[in-house]
Design a protein that fits this description.
The protein has about 100 residues and is of the alpha+beta class. The protein has two domains: about 55 residues; about 40 residues, no CATH class. Helices cover about 35% and strands about 20% of the residues. The protein is built from three helices and three strands; from the N terminus they run ββαβαα. The protein has a three-stranded antiparallel β-sheet, with helices on one face. The termini are far apart.
């Protein structure tokens, strides 16, 4: 079976959620590895046996981007572009309640 990187999240008896990254070949292996890792963590309290849910997020490919705030603001203030870029810029401006400076 193929190994997959997974984020496993469980809650301790105090309701505090803990997320760990494991590499597993199946869903249940990911749950087991996640439970073992959290149980061995000095930051987590006891994990209840009747735990409602364990969240497993399988990360096929992790992509990380770093964006210069200066470049972002330049892009945000720019006019013109393709219809797709105009729509993206409009959406981002709405999210930020951006007011154009004439």
């Amino acid at each position: 079976m193929d190994l997959r990187r997974c984020l496993v999240t469980v809650c301790d008896i105090n309701g505090i959620s803990h997320t760990v990254e494991v590499t597993a070949s199946s869903l249940y292996e990911a749950v087991a590895l996640g439970l073992r890792t959290v149980r061995n963590s000095p930051w987590a309290d006891e994990i209840p046996q009747n735990l409602n849910d364990v969240m497993v997020c399988v990360a096929e490919v992790r992509v990380e981007h770093r964006v210069s705030l200066r470049k972002f603001n330049e892009w945000l203030g720019r006019g013109g572009g393709s219809p797709k870029e105009l729509a993206q810029r409009k959406r981002v401006r709405e999210l930020l309640d951006y007011k154009e400076v004439s």
